[in-house]
């Protein structure tokens, strides 16, 4: 049983949210602002290159954040990861190392590092428990990204165990929501399908074809729920072990496509191209650890997809 801290963070505390322009970082920003925090530090990549240790140290010495969310990083879909493993490994490794190491040197009160479910072995036993990390080979297509995230998780853990730093790590599942990436080549499952279904509706296409059989099972969670879970951990958890922060709910790709078609308003026929690969049959994280602490996600898939599509429609994020 995990011991809860029940720590109430003062609303005047200085929070640094790295990667505040990304989907996860912007969700953290919304949550903190909604809770009344008034001293939130943010920097764009142009203002602060986190891969440069000297710049990171200058920022921390000047701004002296109390709490840090590490949500910054180079991110992308399968194609981007496969084509640029060097950049995904180097950039994310440098960001994790520089921010975590500097936060320790500057005596930050608490730090939360955001990982990814890709840190787990490709053939990990389902549902995936936290101790599955480093027990098997990774998915080759995003190995560079995963290795950098694993290094960040272990660095935070080592600072916690060896130096008593309250540095923790959280693992999200597949995320979607406000601020998602809808580029057809670099996006993930939900934004990619949403983009294509939206175009099919606009062009009155009679048939929409999805890849694979539609049978694989996936776990998805609304990004604002992840932000809520991470803040919960900030106030209630300080053990060195990482924590899965997922919905614990599965949906087949076929069901997902049908829900998305309904959300988008596409009325055509849905077909599946079974000659295309399915990928991993099932990918679900075991989030019983954080649930035992009393946290649970709030947003059901249908409701979250409506919010995501409304944001997509408003911002007209159509790929070129």
List the helices and strands and how they pair.
Blueprint: E1 14-18, H1 23-34, E2 39-41, H2 53-63, E3 67-70, H3 78-83, H4 85-105, E4 110-114, H5 143-163, E5 167-171, E6 174-176, H6 189-202, E7 207-211, E8 217-222, H7 223-236, E9 243-244, E10 250-252, H8 253-264, E11 269-273, E12 282-283, H9 288-292, H10 301-315
Parallel strand pairs: 1-2, 1-3, 3-4, 4-5, 5-9, 6-8, 7-11, 8-12
Antiparallel strand pairs: 8-10
Helix pairs in contact: 1-7, 2-4, 4-5, 6-8, 8-10
Structure commentary:
- With 320 residues, this protein is an alpha/beta fold.
- Helix content is 41%, strand content 15%.
- The strands form three sheets. It has a six-stranded parallel β-sheet, with helices on both faces.
- It starts with 13 loop residues before the first strand and ends in a 5-residue tail after the last helix.
- The mean pLDDT is 94.
Keywords:
four-stranded mixed beta sheet; 41% helix
Summarize the structure.
The chain has 320 residues and is α/β, with parallel strands linked by helices. It is built from 10 helices and 12 strands.
Mean pLDDT: 94
- Rg estimate, integer Å: 20 Å
The ordered string of helix (H) and strand (E) elements is EHEHEHHEHEEHEEHEEHEEHH
Sequence of strands across the biggest β-sheet? 2-1-3-4-5-9
**Can you tell me the residue ranges where pLDDT is under 50 for at least 5 consecutive residues?**
none
The portion of residues forming beta strands comes to 15-25%
> Major sheet: size, sense and barrel closure?
6 strands, parallel
Helix content: 40-55%
């Amino acid at each position: 049983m995990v011991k809860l801290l029940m720590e109430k963070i003062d609303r005047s505390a200085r929070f640094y949210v790295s990667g505040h322009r990304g989907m996860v970082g912007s969700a953290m920003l919304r949550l903190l602002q909604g809770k009344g925090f008034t001293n939130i530090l943010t920097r764009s990549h142009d203002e602060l290159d986190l891969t440069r240790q000297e710049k990171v140290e200058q920022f921390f010495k000047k701004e002296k954040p109390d709490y840090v969310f590490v949500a910054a990083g180079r991110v992308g879909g399968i194609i981007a990861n496969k084509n640029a493993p060097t950049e995904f490994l180097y950039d994310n490794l440098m960001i994790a190392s520089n921010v975590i190491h500097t936060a320790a040197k500057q005596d930050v009160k608490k730090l939360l590092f955001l990982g990814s479910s890709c840190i787990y072995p490709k053939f990990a036993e389902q549902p995936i428990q936290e101790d599955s990390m480093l027990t098997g080979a990774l998915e080759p297509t995003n190995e560079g990204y995963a290795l950098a995230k694993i290094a960040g998780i272990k660095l935070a853990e080592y600072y916690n165990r060896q130096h008593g730093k309250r540095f923790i790590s959280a693992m999200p599942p597949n995320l979607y929501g406000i601020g998602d990436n809808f580029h057809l080549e670099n996006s993930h499952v939900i934004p990619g399908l949403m983009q294509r279904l939206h175009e099919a509706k606009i062009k009155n296409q009679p048939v929409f074809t999805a890849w694979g059989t539609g049978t694989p099972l996936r776990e998805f969670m609304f990004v604002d729920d992840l932000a809520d879970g991470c803040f919960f951990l900030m106030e209630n958890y300080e053990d060195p072990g990482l924590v899965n922060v997922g919905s614990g709910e599965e949906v087949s790709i076929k069901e997902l496509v049908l829900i998305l078609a309904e959300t988008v308003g596409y009325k055509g026929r849905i077909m599946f191209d079974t000659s295309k690969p399915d990928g991993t049959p099932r990918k679900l994280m075991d989030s019983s650890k954080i649930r035992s602490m009393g946290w649970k996600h709030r947003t059901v898939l249908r409701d979250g997809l409506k919010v995501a599509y409304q944001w997509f429609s408003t911002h007209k994020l159509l790929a070129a």
